[in-house]
Structure formats: C-alpha cells, structure tokens
Fold this protein.
Amino acid sequence: MLKVAVITVSDRASRGEYPDRSGPRVREVLERELPGVDVVVEVVADEPRSLRAALRRHLGRDYILTTGGTGLAPRDITPETCARWCDREAPGISEWLRRESQRETPHAVFSRAYSGMKGRTLVVNLPGSLRGAELCARLLAGVMPHGRDMAHGGDHEPQKKQ
Amino acid sequence: MLKVAVITVSDRASRGEYPDRSGPRVREVLERELPGVDVVVEVVADEPRSLRAALRRHLGRDYILTTGGTGLAPRDITPETCARWCDREAPGISEWLRRESQRETPHAVFSRAYSGMKGRTLVVNLPGSLRGAELCARLLAGVMPHGRDMAHGGDHEPQKKQ
Amino acid sequence: MLKVAVITVSDRASRGEYPDRSGPRVREVLERELPGVDVVVEVVADEPRSLRAALRRHLGRDYILTTGGTGLAPRDITPETCARWCDREAPGISEWLRRESQRETPHAVFSRAYSGMKGRTLVVNLPGSLRGAELCARLLAGVMPHGRDMAHGGDHEPQKKQ
C-alpha cells in the first residue's frame, strides 16, 4: 500500500485566510486512482524552515507531494527548499509534468518545480493552482507504484527486461 | 511597460569582425510582439567577466535575454555565467525553448541554455543563431508579461485561480 | 572518425552473473549508424570509484556513453558520478532522450540520466534496459558528428548560419 504525504505550501492557507483546496483535491485524486493509498495532508507557510520541518515529518513515506510555491514570486521557495533537502535529483518527473501542464496553460513554462529523492522517499513538486495540482496528481498516480518499486531496488536488474 | 535588455555574447561581434545581427533581430521581434516594450541591446565577448558586468548593468530590468554562447565550444560560457549570477533557477523556460527549437533543427539538443532569476529580473538564454534567436524571442514574447507579473508577486494567490 | 567509449554500469554484469548485453548492443547500433566509428566497451560495478576510473580512462574520446545506473534504486549512482566529474552540463540531450523514451515506456520519467562535458568529451547517460539503450543510441547517432564538431569549436560562429 502506497504511503503519501501532501504538503500544501501557502502563506494564506496556513494562516486560515482561505481553506486549502489543492491538498484535499490531490488526496481525492490519489484515492480514486490508487485504491487503498494512505494519504496525509498538511499545510505550511511559504517558509523554508516550515517546509523543511514538514518534509522531515514525512520522511519514510513513499512519496511527498507538495502543492504551491513553485512560481516566480519572491516567496516561492518550494523548489530550492526541496532540492537542498533531497539527496538526489529526478528531473524527468518535473520535465514531464511541466510539458503536460503546458497543454493546459502556456504559463506552465514558469513552473520551477523540482523532483528528487531523500533516501527512498520521492519528493515531487506539483503546481499550486487547483487545476494544475489535480492534473499532475492524476498523471503521477499512473506511475507512482512503479516509482516506489524502483526506489526499493525492485527494478535494479535492468538488463533482464528485454 | 516591459523593460528588457538583450545581451549578445560573441567574441567576433564584440571585436567588430562582423555586425551583431541576433541582438537587433531579437529587439525587432519584441517591439513587434509587445508594443511599447523598452529594449536595450549590448554586445560582449565570450568572457565570464564581461558578461557578468553586463548582467549587473541591467539588473532591475524585467528581462535580460542573452543570445550566443550556449553551445559546446570551449568558449561557450553563457549558461554557467548566468547560472552563477542568478539566485534561482527557472528550468521550464529553457526546456520549452529547446523543445520548440528542435522542431527547426535537431541540433538544438546541444543547447545548454539556462533560465533563472536574480531578484525580480528574469534571465533567459536564447540561441546564438539568427533564426534560433528569432524563434525563441517570438515564443517568449507571448508569455513575458505574465512572467513579469509573477515575479512581482501578482500570481501569488494560486488557489484563487480555479 | 568518431571515437566512442561505452561503459556499462552494472553490479551483476561486472561480477559476471550475466553477460553484458546493453553495451555490445549500443556498439552494434553505433557501428551500423556511423560507419567507421571506433567503439570500445567496458563494464564496471555501480560504484562511484569504479565509474570515475573508467571515465578517466576514456577522457579524450569524443563521446563516453554509459548504460545503467540511472534509476531510483539506492545503488543507482551514474548521474551523480558523471555530473561531479564533468565541467559543464548539457541538459538538452537528456531532456530529449527521456522524452523520446517515454513514447516507449511511461516509466522513462524516472530516468535521472545526465549529460555534460569534460573538456571536449561529451558524456551521455543512456538507460540500462536493452531496448532503452538501443533506442537512445540510435537517436543519438544522428547528431553525434555535429556534437563533436561543436565541441571542437567548429560551430562557434553562430551568426554566420542564417
């Protein structure tokens, strides 16, 4: 059973100025696409310290997905914070999600989303917009079980797959 | 009104061995696509020191676009110089421009172009070839106003956009 | 005449638990697509030290292609080892190969493959699977001569190509 944490990174949602909608939406999508998945959702401010603390809390889950904080505004610190926290980069995931998001909105080119690993936990930044987060969660759901298996070494006999 | 600097990075153009054509062409494209845009053009040698000095001169503009110096030759130093100077990376822009450039020439895969930010100024490396620079300038023009708004925090309420 | 080294990165193949098939297959593809090419093939374990030693042995060749070690398993260390060894990144090559690989398998998004340069030698990580390595070698063969010329400065008068 896949274990996932979803961290919404948003100053306003973390202060209660509006309800977090993206995090719960990502959870809905995952629960629909991956029956039996275990998803926890959390909201933090756009602060490196808060985000790092949340990442640490969820280390050991198969996936930590973030939503928000990947744009160009001065307080968009999600990609850098995740990149510094991770051990290894997995750039193909973000390249793909950006490319697919661009079909919906040309502004997706400004996404600075990062993806990587800390130990066996995969960290993937999703967009902050409700539609963008939903689209990316749906796409990602299709490959998440395989990614988890790879992270656990299950795919480490590549030449056998011919 | 969008403020843009275009820096042509070319040893030969900087020595006057031939006139810089890519920089003025990028300016033409921007002026056509973004009426009212303020564009300054400058030529520097393929030297990190010269390029850094030019970047510093234009810090505060909405965009600094470079043309040239993104290939595989030993003197192609534009991406590294810009990456070290910037605070934050914005990889989606270069991924997109490379992908679109590949429709014109398969050799675009060798572009090492970088895109990122220093403060609120967006830095984007364009190809050095006249056609490549023109194509990328035209594509970029379509999203430049939105990028500037994002950099100024105008888009920092992502969950409202549903 | 293009000079290429192919390094298979695989614990099991290096211990002789099974024969290396991806390296020889990449050589076959290159010899078919690039008549006259000079290809040497070598197998090393998934160990940064072994891979670095192999990279050093082949420095000066036009290309060093690796196969294997780009996934998510803890022992997949090819991208990091190559990135640290190289002087300059050339991300467009890996972006392209990942995108094309995805047409064959959606799991290609998990490829962490890196491409870059050490001096004038181009280093490109290919997938470890036989089919993936073969596809990428075939694609790459089409642009390898041009990349070599660029690395030697032959393309460094970009504005002439209009």
